[in-house]
Amino acid sequence: MDEETVDVSVAFDDIEELWAPKIAAELNGQHVKLARLEGTFDWHRHEEGDELFYVLDGELRIEFRDRPDATLTENQLRAVPAGVEHRPVAEEEVRVMLFEPAGTRNTGNVETEKTSEVERL
Amino acid sequence: MDEETVDVSVAFDDIEELWAPKIAAELNGQHVKLARLEGTFDWHRHEEGDELFYVLDGELRIEFRDRPDATLTENQLRAVPAGVEHRPVAEEEVRVMLFEPAGTRNTGNVETEKTSEVERL
Q1: By CA distance, what is A26's nearest residue in B?
Q2: Does residue B118 sit within a domain?
Q3: In a domain, A1, yes or no
Q4: Of A7, A76, A81, the CB nearest to B8
């Protein structure tokens, strides 16, 4: 696991690509990731792991197939259970912190042009 | 696991006690907790689990027995590995988000007057 202090605000300076989460910390087999999102992501689900979204700046809508959408604004968080199909949508750029198992692929069960290798900050 | 949106800023209105983390979300056997800290905590370690501190507001010093202290300001995070003795110190009130395994006791391996039952928000 990591042992260094990460300044989240500064870390975003190194995140240029949209929809490409970067690893800020690893602990207990989980990753804390940071991502910039804008536009409409692809529908997907994570078969094995729950995923938490914490909005740092902006507004994020998480759309679901089988339940009402969730709209998160700054300082709001929401967990999406394993197996639940969802699609993040950001009308304008939003900055999020993610908490999910190490090894989680951003597009979950599908491979699309938005599928991204997960790199460290 | 939980499926509700939590507004972190609002949630702090329900946290009156210092050093008593409250559970904001549960996922993958981990808890996301919120806590208000002020003063000097007790030295302790968590034998089994790593623990992450993310400072939302204020300044937190994490003192260690065997390595340099870490001072975290707003939007900074730091993971403390399992087994590493540490002591959070806040000269003034600080608000933090914690990531750690479900079941983690705030005072880790020791029971003191600061040991607190962990409740849900």
Answers
A1: B79
A2: no
A3: no
A4: A76
Full-model pTM: 0.96
Interface A–B counts its CB contacts (< 8 A) at 100
Q: Report angle CA B95, B120, A97 to the nearest 5 degrees.
A: 50
- The first and second tokens of residue B112, run together, are 């003191």
For residue A17, the domain's CATH number is 2.60.120.10
The verdict on residue B114 lying in a domain is no
H or E element, residue B11: helix B8-11
Query: Domain limits at B97?
Result: 8-109
Interface predicted TM-score (ipTM)? 0.95
- Interface check for B99 against chain A (CB to CB < 8 A): the answer is yes
Residue whose C-alpha is closest to residue A47's, from A85, A74, A10: A85
Does the structure show a pLDDT above 60 at A45? Answer: yes
Residue A84 to residue A54: CA distance in whole angstroms:
18
CA A89 to each of CA A19, A63, A106, B7: distance values in angstroms, whole numbers, following the listed order: 11, 7, 14, 19
pLDDT at A102 over 80: yes
